[in-house]
Amino acid sequence: MWGVTAVLAAGAMIFAFEVPALFVRRSRRAWAAFLFLLTAGISILLCIAAGVAIPSPLEPLRMIFEPVGRAIRGE
Amino acid sequence: MEQERISAAQFKKMVFLYTIGTSVILVSNMLASDAANDAWFAAIVGTVAGLGLVGLYLALVRLVPGKTLVEICFVLLGKWLGLFCAFLLFVYSFVLTTLVMRNLGDFLTASLFPETPIYAIHLVYLLIVLIGVRYGLSNIARTMDIFYPFIFLLFILFALLLMPDVDLKQIQPILRSGAKPIVNAAYSYISFPYLEFILFLMIFSKIENARDGGKAFLNGTFLGGFVLLIITILCITVLGTEMTASNLYASYEMAKTIKIGDFIQRVEAIIAAIWFVTIFCKLLLCFYMTIQSFSQTFHLGEYRPFVFAMGVVLFAISIIVVPDSGYFISFDRYVWTVYALTCGFVIPLLLLVVGFIRRKRNVQESASGGLDNTPDY
């Protein structure tokens, strides 16, 4: 449980730290990008902390490029 | 926000430290596992090809001067295709950054800190990098100024200490098994690190003098390639081909063999220090490129508010990105090469062709007295 708490605390700290600058900017795009990055990162970290298995994000790349790569190597 | 400028000399140091980062330990093993005792030859081939690639990137910059890579995509391909292309390059830089991070963690847990959990190492390293990127590019450039002579001295010291153990017979017989293994090895070597240099175009427009910048780019690549060549030759001649090909961290293993008298020993700390510093530089530059391409691709303006949020994503992904080292090796061999070739060669070549066609059309239209409809981005 410590992991989950630490992750949430870190997320809250980053949020509090960056929000003043974002308020000054008044850009909806910037808010959307910031919130997207932070929620994505925090949710993956929560999954890791809670012990949920997540497939590697490299899998799609591997599926697209591996056949070509093997063909180029001639294997 | 004031314009951040760097000098051409600083750019050269950046390219040099970037080339050495991660490669200094991994390259000799990668080359030797394909080309055996001709690994040094593959290193030369790879460096020459790397210089050719830098020439391609410089041609692209000359076509659209003063723009970063993402801006070049938008200028040449228009709004939607440009967005797609810029997004691909952003994903490439992001994946690269996570893999560099993971390389660092894997190496340190395997060699120096066997009982430290990998996320602790990532966290400590990432925090320094985040602070560095928040301070901005001119600050990063000055950091490179400090580290550059330090790395050079350590490298020379390292090479000198190994001299007594060099056995040149290990290189023979030269070119025994023909060209194919060499091409195979050079192919891996080009994709890591040379094809990654496309991302330096994110920084290139910040150099005060673009002409000197081009020279500095080539110089840095050459110097970095030279150091990697020396490391490879040392690995083969000191450790022997089989040891080099079977140790993932061959140059670190090689440093363990240094023993002069009874008082100079265990100098693998030197190579570990070179690795610490250069990978810090590489990670710093990679992260800077990632965050810049992110904010420019989505037109977010100033990148600083996203640094920590991006850091969280990076930290999370770097933990789950490779389940085990076998996955990593096969990924490097079959997937990363093609992926890097797509992003580092096919995309810039495409941009270059589109740029030439557009310029030609513009010249023709203005010559025939037609409207000069150069789009205004």
Count of structural domains of chain A: 1
Enumerate the strands of the largest sheet of chain B in spatial order, edge to edge or round the barrel.
Answer: 1-2
Relative strand content of chain A: under 5%
Biggest β-sheet of chain A: count, sense, barrel? none
Cα distance, first to last residue of chain A? 47 Å
Keywords (chain B): Germination, Membrane, Transmembrane, Transmembrane helix, Transport
Membrane topology (chain B): Multi-pass membrane protein
Organism (chain B): Paenibacillus methanolicus
Protein name (chain B): Spore germination protein KB
How is this fold's topology laid out?
The complex is a heterodimer of chains A (75) and B (377).
Chain A: H1 2-25, H2 28-50, H3 59-73
Chain B: H1 8-20, H2 23-35, H3 39-63, H4 69-77, H5 79-111, H6 118-135, H7 137-162, H8 180-191, H9 201-204, H10 210-239, H11 241-246, H12 250-256, E1 259-260, E2 264-265, H13 268-297, H14 307-320, H15 325-367
Antiparallel strand pairs in B: 1-2
Membrane topology (chain B): Multi-pass membrane protein
Transmembrane segments (chain B): 15-33, 39-60, 72-96, 116-137, 146-166, 186-204, 216-239, 269-291, 303-322, 334-357
Pfam family, one (chain B): Spore_permease
